[in-house]
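Work package 3, deliverable 3.1, input record:
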Amino acid sequence: MSETALALAEPDEPDVMTGAEVAASGKPAGHREDTILYLDGVSVSFDGFKAINNLSFLLREGEMRAVIGPNGAGKTTMMDIITGKTRPDEGEVFFNGNVDLTRHDEPAIATMGIGRKFQKPTVFEGHTVDDNLALALSGVRSIFASLAHRRTIEEERRIVEILETTRLSHLRHTSAASLSHGQKQWLEIGMLLAQSPKVLLVDEPVAGMTDAETAETARLLRDIARSHSVVVVEHDMGFVRDLGVKVTCLHEGSVLSEGTIDHVSADPKVIEVYLGR
Amino acid sequence: MITGYFLRQGLNRWIIASLVVILAIGILVPAANLLLPAGHPLHVPSYIVALFGKYLCYALLALSLDLVWGYVGILSLGHGAFFALGGYAMGMYLMRQIGTRGVYGDPTLPDFMVFLNWKELPWFWSGFDQFWFAAIMVMLAPGLLAFVFGWFAFRSRVTGVYLSIITQAMTYALMLAFFRNDMGFGGNNGLTDFKDILGYSIQSDQTRAALFLSSAVALALGVLLVGALGASRYGKLMVAVRDAEDRTRFLGYRPEFVKLFAFTASAVMAGIAGALYVPQVGIINPGEFAPANSIEIVIWTAVGGRGTIIGPIIGAILVNAGKSAFTGLFPEYWLFALGALFIAVTLFLPKGIVGTAMHGWDALQRLRAARRHEEGRHDGPAASQPEAAE
């Protein structure tokens, strides 16, 4: 953690901070130790294009956050950085207050407790719903352990539990390839849960869903947020309003505005970015 | 997909059935050759034993490719290299068994070394007079090559067509290297004129029968291995890596190690196939490293049905039997026929013969189940709870 960030961090900063404050300081407030995710001064560029520009973002333990922003705002790149897929050129990325994520790769970060759902639903189509969840269950990760592994009663119990949470119980023995688009999204969310993560990063969970499916997904995510920290990237404003959580609006790789959905959607800068192009 | 599900349900039955068939062939064919008199209608002539022994080795080779291509999705276009390396290891043992019976009568140096005026045995030939040492090298040489190659390729996340191309380059480079006389593996001519294996004449019907049976046993063990791997959690992980590699990585798995394990195990299987092949055909030369050979293996596997266990075996035997018949009739046109076959299978039978048959069988079962359901005859819950055994 840099000295300046320490100096700027106020002790006992209340949970809600206005977007104006964040934009003015350019630094996240609060102790790094209190956060589950802490990004400070992060920049990354691809072939000269700054995908992320001095981004600061923090998530408290147990918080659910919605991230919005126009195409190319850097939402997915931010997730790539957190999950170890992309190394930042500069800046700090910490998990749980003390784990430097820039020093670890994807499997290591996943095992620490950061689960990620991709924009396009990505499940194992060659397997049944049951096997998809079984493979995702936290625990056995090495090759040799997986050669001899037999499913335990505890694992069975957790699979049943996740099937109920994601409402896929009746499809347990169905091939994942024959699920509908929405069901695949829920299965992937279920697989994240099976990992027993501390943080879930969920990229556009309702893209291409019907209204009923969208409402169901909002219910599922609110359910999950009761026991996990969650970051949801989404374009669908109605859905974000439905979630009823703090919103961060990204633009050109940095935070444009942050606060309640009403605050963010009333922010003239946000309106300009969304309507001015 | 649904075929895969069906396969898993019926896995043990299928594996046991194929094991029984393979071992029965392994015993009955040599028995019909040795025990029945030449005039008997069921007598199997010696050349057929040799020919089918070769097919069994090809079947094991195709099965080894299936492990990496069908299960993990690695299209290796260099599997012929592992087969040839196993073959060379066995060939080196057979060369050392010739002893003073060679043309030059040198007790330790093989003929080609005497011919090249070499005075002593190169260091890498030592130990090959012992069968156990050669047997270890049959597995170690291809296994080590696959491990080192895979370590670099998979860790650098080389996938898809790029990986296929570098496997092809690997076998091509090895072919060029083995063509050189200086390499010490007999150059252009390779290793041949074998006399004995474990003290028995390599030409005798009894030895050939034993080699045939050994090939059948090796194939059966291969089926058992692939079946057991496929049914384990690791097997599910292999398919998961094939279907969505990124997903496995973000679940905390290391797909490069999943691939490395399968690739190395597969190379060892291919090496064993090569080692059983060489004494039955009596020669190993750098032509076995030819890229075209590796591509043929892919065709056998595709024709039979990748991702199934018996598919590649059936594919290897059918295509090679076809090749033997075809090259007898129109020797010039075999490569055209092979190319046409590959195109036809890709277009009309993308799952291969066995994959398509299983898919059809599966569809039939569902149709029957639906019909039963319509007629109101329920079979009880037992029929719909197949996975209780897990």
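The longest helix of chain A spans residues 211-225.
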